[in-house]
Amino acid sequence: MNDCSIFIGRQPILGRQGNIYAYELLYRNSEENVFPDINPEQATISLLVNTFLSIGVDRVTSGVPSFINFSGELLAQDLFMSLNPDQVVIEILEGVEITPALLRRLQMFKEAGFTLALDDFTLQDQYIAYPQLFKLVDIVKVDFLLTSREERARIKGFLKKYPSIVLLAEKVETEADYQLALKSGYDLFQGYFFAKPEIIKSAEIPSNTLIHLQIIEYFQSDTQSINELADLIMRDVSISYKLLRFINSLAFEIPRRISSIKQAIVLIGLNETKKWLQVLMLHDLGKDLQSGRVTALVELSLRRARACELLAEYKGKSNKDEYFLTGMFSMIDAVMSRKWEEILPLLSLSDVIINTLNGEETEMTPYLQLIEAVERFEWEQVKRLSSQLAIPNKKLSDIFLHALRWSQGIEENFN
């Protein structure tokens, strides 16, 4: 098994006609189809990062909404307002305390367009004490395995006052359960009778713990510049990839033409970028992703990025940042063990970067070919391309030595 794999469990939620209405997404950390020993906040954060910023939500859900569990602590955080309400149903865990403050938060999510669901619903005293909750909730999930017929009848009687609420029967295990739920007026169904959760597996890009620590230190500094943050992010392929996925996956009305990491931060906004980076820090720190093959590919990607940038700078190119991103993502297919046609639509990159990575002839192509020739010790090709681009051997050697040291975090400046 690849040490750098990530996993998501998903279970279909069906409509009355047997159509897939949505998937409930479940945190998993292996191919074992069980919930691991992890607190619910960490599970949801990891699930969101894996779904939206690594694998891609369309690949996980095939275009239907995803039910995701939220604790009270996570509902209180503004950063999740950036999720796309067409893609996410907020499932409020049964242990969440209903308070006036929580109701105000739920009102905000509702006004932003989110669908709200109550998980494992029973007639708790707090629900009866806050009837205004049911003017906000769209879906109520009732556990058919743990509730008796009598309790379900009481729930149905209680919810009669709120006719717009949709009932979802979960943990439907038998044909008899399904038929009973149908007759009882349930419109949505979930359980082993239809399908056990399936595991979706993908490759993860190893993150650089040292860079994460430097980003955390950056958060604590008094002066925070976009340039400084961009320089840090550019040293980590994993964060750079997820930043571009963030733009493409979440609810931002911005162009899809990204030519530099700095531009991405400006488009999102420094504060919003910092919020999501904090989520990534929480998700990634402590993870032990040490696949030798993938780690080597990531370091090589960073080396290419810096070499591309320095070659472009030496030649006086005005778009050296695009050269950097082209080098950085030139091996992302190998890093993630996915095809280019699957990966490139996920990234908000400029046309010239996309075209170069797709193998089309662009202004960047000979520079990338030169770098690849040096890596493979193809000296005839190196001689031909360096002559074509008018890059002296000494300059080429200096650039590659610096790129090697920069990718290992040894050297900061290049003159």
Could you walk me through the main structural features you see in this protein, from its secondary elements to its overall organization?
By secondary structure, the chain is of the alpha/beta class. It has helices spanning 40-55, 57-61, 72-75, 100-111, 125-129, 149-159, 175-183, 209-220, 226-233, 237-249, 261-268, 270-284, 292-314, 320-328, 332-336, 340-343, 351-357, 365-375, 379-388, 393-407; strands at residues 5-14, 20-28, 66-70, 88-92, 115-118, 139-143, 166-170, 188-189, 198-203. It has two domains: 5-202, EAL domain (TIM Barrel, Alpha-Beta Barrel); 209-407, Hypothetical protein af1432 (Orthogonal Bundle). The chain has a nine-stranded mixed β-sheet. Helix 1 (40-55) packs across helix 12 and helix 8 (209-220) packs across helix 12 (270-284). The chain is elongated, with a radius of gyration of 25 Å.
What is the fold named in CATH at topology level of the largest domain?
Hypothetical protein af1432
Query: Number of helix segments?
Result: 20
Tell me the structural class: alpha/beta
How would you describe the oligomerization state of the chains in this entry?
Answer: single chain
pLDDT averaged over residues: 85
Order of helices and strands: EEHHEHEHEHEHEHEEHHHHHHHHHHHHH
Could you give the order of strands across the largest sheet?
8-7-6-5-4-3-2-1-9
Q: Architecture of the largest domain in CATH?
A: Orthogonal Bundle
Residues in helix, %: 40-55%
Overall CATH class of the largest domain:
Mainly Alpha
Question: What percentage of the residues does DSSP assign to strands (E)?
Answer: 5-15%
Amino- and carboxy-terminal Cα gap: 44 Å
Shape summary: elongated
Task: Count up the domains.
Answer: 2
